[in-house]
UniProtKB/TrEMBL annotation, chain A:
Belongs to the sulfur carrier protein TusA family. GO terms for molecular function: transferase activity. Residues 10-34 form the UPF0033 domain. It comes from Caldiarchaeum subterraneum. Keywords: Transferase. The keyword Transferase applies. This is Sulfurtransferase TusA family protein. The keyword Protein transport does not apply.
From TrEMBL, chain B:
It comes from the Archaea. Pfam families: DrsE_2. This is Peroxiredoxin. Gene3D superfamilies: DsrEFH-like. It comes from Caldiarchaeum subterraneum.
Length: 82, 140
């Protein structure tokens, strides 16, 4: 699973709620079911918000990791499920 | 048979930036989560739907920053202007309702409204929408 290659990257570093969720949704609609997108964000709410969004929309967060510090960057891999 | 969706309806009653942003943020996010969403603009909130007033909306005194300061802070966070946020909400499928009694009070006609309004409704229609068991209604 770690080898999953995202077909699209959404860079929302520096952007505040609700932009990470809105831009993730736009991106996921552009890819095919089964494909994976990458989202990178600095908003600390992006993790709970994207997890909630994924639960509600039935998409799957394949990976969440934090990279670096000051600011911490949250990196997500999200698979379009439907 | 169409599956009935969960829905969020927000009453936007305040004509300040900090009164209107949360309404639009919640409604737009609800649509992103696969819900239906609507914002019912009433009283002060109707400023945003009124062509002559939509660009003049200030933050509340309570927020404690000037309009310029707030605009700077918001753009730093990638946040669109209120009017762009309204248009984005509409494009994403948020239903935009104008309040008919507010329009009567202030002598507003349909032509005075920003071109995003789905319908002009009153309390009775709003309550019917809000009373649906799959609907969450919030007053901001």
């Amino acid at each position: 699973m770690a080898m999953v290659k995202p077909v699209l990257t959404v860079d929302v570093k520096g952007e505040m709620c609700p932009m990470p969720v809105l831009k993730t949704r736009q991106a996921i609609q552009q890819v095919k079911v089964g494909e994976v997108i990458e989202v990178v964000a600095t908003d600390p709410a992006s993790q709970p918000d994207l997890e909630s969004w994924a639960r509600k929309t039935g998409n799957r967060i394949v990976l969440v990791e934090t990279v670096g510090s000051n600011p911490v960057v949250y990196r997500f891999l999200i698979e379009r499920v439907k | 048979m169409a599956e009935e969706k969960n829905r969020l309806v927000v009453v936007a009653s305040r004509g300040t930036a900090d009164g209107l942003y949360p309404a639009l943020i919640l409604a737009t996010t609800a649509v992103a989560q696969g819900k239906e969403a609507a914002v019912y603009f009433t009283f002060g909130g109707m400023k945003l739907l009124t062509k002559q007033l939509a660009q003049t909306i200030n933050p509340s005194v309570d927020l404690g920053v000037s309009r310029e300061q707030l605009e700077q802070l918001l753009s730093k966070g990638g946040m669109p202007s209120l009017l762009d946020m309204l248009k984005m909400a509409k494009q994403n499928g948020v239903k935009i309702y104008a309040c008919s009694p507010t329009m009567s009070l202030f002598g507003l006609r349909k032509e005075d409204l920003v071109d995003v309004v789905d319908d002009i409704i009153g309390a009775s229609t709003f309550l019917e929408i809000a009373s649906d068991p799959k609907t969450l209604a919030l007053f901001i």
